[in-house]
Design brief:
Blueprint: H1 2-24, E1 28-32, E2 35-40, H2 44-52, E3 59-65, E4 69-70, E5 74-80, E6 85-92, E7 95-99, E8 103-111, E9 114-122, E10 128-134, H3 137-144
Parallel strand pairs: 3-10
Antiparallel strand pairs: 1-2, 2-7, 3-4, 3-7, 5-6, 5-8, 8-9
């Protein structure tokens, strides 16, 4: 009987480790120099967890394609006004939140060979929300077709 209980407990612990690892496998918190960030947000639970931390970050990037389809694997580079790289992340999104000091920053984000660039100014603790949206390739294909 004791062996059955040990077996079940080991199985339960193993399942908990797998579930915990799966939940944090994509959401990543880190620091690059003085820049703290959190990146991820696929799945409702993970997105909710990251959004709950939004107030801790003063630059919040939301990455999407077409009509609100969240995307990841966006190459994101953020530089300050002196050109110093504050973050260079090859796999950003769909949510990328950063802690930066007040100042002017350039965001350069590339997805499927298309680069979007924005200049952002952070002037207070509340920060800014930045929405970067790439047109859907399906929409581009439809627009580029000659109807005649």
């Amino acid at each position: 009987m004791m062996n059955i209980v040990k077996f079940l407990l080991n199985g339960l612990i193993g399942a908990m480790v797998i579930v915990t690892t799966a939940n944090i496998a994509y959401a990543v918190e880190g620091n690059v120099g003085e820049t703290a960030y959190v990146n991820g947000g696929f799945g409702e639970e993970e997105a909710s967890d990251i959004k709950a931390k939004a107030g801790e970050y003063n630059m919040r990037l939301y990455l999407s394609e077409g009509k609100g389809h969240s995307i990841a694997d966006v190459s994101v580079t953020i530089t300050d006004k002196k050109g110093n790289v504050r973050l260079d992340l090859p796999n950003g999104g769909p949510l990328l939140f950063l802690k930066l000091e007040n100042g002017i920053y350039k965001i350069s984000a590339q997805y499927n060979g298309v680069t979007i660039t924005r200049k952002i100014t952070i002037t207070n603790r509340r920060g800014v929300n930045v929405y970067l949206n790439w047109k859907s390739t399906e929409v581009e294909d439809e627009v580029s077709k000659d109807p005649s």
